[in-house]
Predict the structure.
Amino acid sequence: MTNRAKNTICLWFDRDAEEAARFYAALFPDSAVTAVHRAPGDFPSGASGDVLVVEFTVLGVPCMGLNGGPAFRHSEAFSFQVATVDQAETDRYWNAIVGNGGQESACGWCKDRWGISWQITPMALTEAINDPDRAAAKRAFDAMMTMSRIDIAAIEAARRG
């Protein structure tokens, strides 16, 4: 028996959990597909031998993808929040997610092609909106509210006033 995390995020997919897991594993460091389990029999959204469950990690977080069929969809009520160190890393993740059939949203949020929400959040943004100078924090926050992908230079300029 393999060592399992006591708590694993389970994400429901229609039928492409393995494709999603491999995309995440290729995009993010400390990420991997660790197991692919096939159904031992027919099930409501598939047949014996189809991929049923995929075990993977995203940035070290244990996850499981379940190919459960079309009954449930993802929503913004759940998201992965990825802290980035600079604009290049922010842009790389944002462009990979949005450019692979995803969609932009507001304030650093986007969705991948499977409907999973991601917050691509530069550490500079977190620092700016938590600035002890509340006026500087508000300027940075107001700037963020106008953005889809976060522009660190614009956040820092707003913070400075």
